[in-house]
Specification:
By secondary structure, the protein is an alpha/beta fold. The chain has a single domain, classed as Vaccinia Virus protein VP39 (Rossmann fold, 3-Layer(aba) Sandwich), CATH 3.40.50. It is 32% helix and 20% strand. It is built from 8 helices and 7 strands, in the order H-E-H-H-E-H-E-E-H-E-H-H-E-H-E. It has a 7-stranded mixed sheet, sandwiched between helices. It is globular, with a radius of gyration of 17 Å.
């Protein structure tokens, strides 16, 4: 079976996510981004902070106690709060989100089906689930393979292409509404990685499926 990719490309993942969060109630799962929480917040490159400026309400849940304490002491967040919540107990939340953000998490999980089942417990037919994850077809993955090398994150358990992510969501009763090939910000990268970032991002305008990140917006489908 051969499928044809759509050509939807956006150069920045965060900008695309923010469009969906404006004036919405947002549930933000596992987004402390440890160990970079303090540094990213102080340098104003923090998705939680950006969403706070535009959402009607944001609930951030995480298991990183130190980061939760640090963020709860901050005074600048007007529309947000952060709590220690286990994903296996999401149904206990007294919060009905319009948007659920699940960014750069799915690739860390051992049992994705359990995680998605728990997330669906706080979704209704109008709730949008936003998932982002590394793209298996990222151009630099192929470049490194020419030198018998592979760049990886030591805690990642799985790597998705667009089709396999789409198929996994389908079998978990989630329907894709919109999808993008996109890039993370070059924040914290050294000069070598920044050069490769701008080169590959430019190439991805022509060949989107070589982008480094998949961004999926989906809804629950119980039919």
């Amino acid at each position: 079976m051969i499928i044809k990719y759509n050509r939807q490309f956006t150069k920045d993942r965060n900008t695309a996510i923010l469009k969906y969060c404006e004036w919405k109630k947002v549930l933000h799962i596992w987004a402390c981004d440890s160990p970079f929480t303090k540094d990213r917040l102080n340098k104003k490159w923090f998705l939680y902070q950006d969403i706070d400026h535009i959402c009607s309400e944001q609930l951030w849940i995480d298991l990183d106690t130190d980061s939760i304490i640090f963020l709860n002491w901050r005074k600048e967040f007007k529309n947000s709060k952060i709590s220690f919540v286990d994903m296996n107990k999401l149904e206990s939340l007294e919060f009905q989100p319009d948007i659920i953000i699940f960014w750069e998490v799915i690739e860390h999980l051992m049992n994705i089906e359990v995680a998605l089942t728990n997330i669906k417990k706080v979704m209704n037919e109008n709730t949008q689930l936003i998932i982002s994850t590394p793209n298996a077809f990222y151009l630099m993955n192929f470049v490194f393979s020419l030198f018998w090398k592979e760049v990886m994150h030591e805690d990642h358990k799985v790597l998705f292409s667009y089709w396999y992510l789409q198929n996994m969501l389908k079998f978990n009763w989630l329907t894709i509404e919109k999808s993008y090939f996109t890039f993370l910000s070059p924040y914290l990268l050294n000069i070598y990685w920044k050069i490769s970032y701008y080169i590959t991002r430019t190439i991805s305008y022509i060949v989107p499926y070589w982008s480094d990140t998949l961004l999926i917006i989906c809804k629950k489908n119980d039919k």
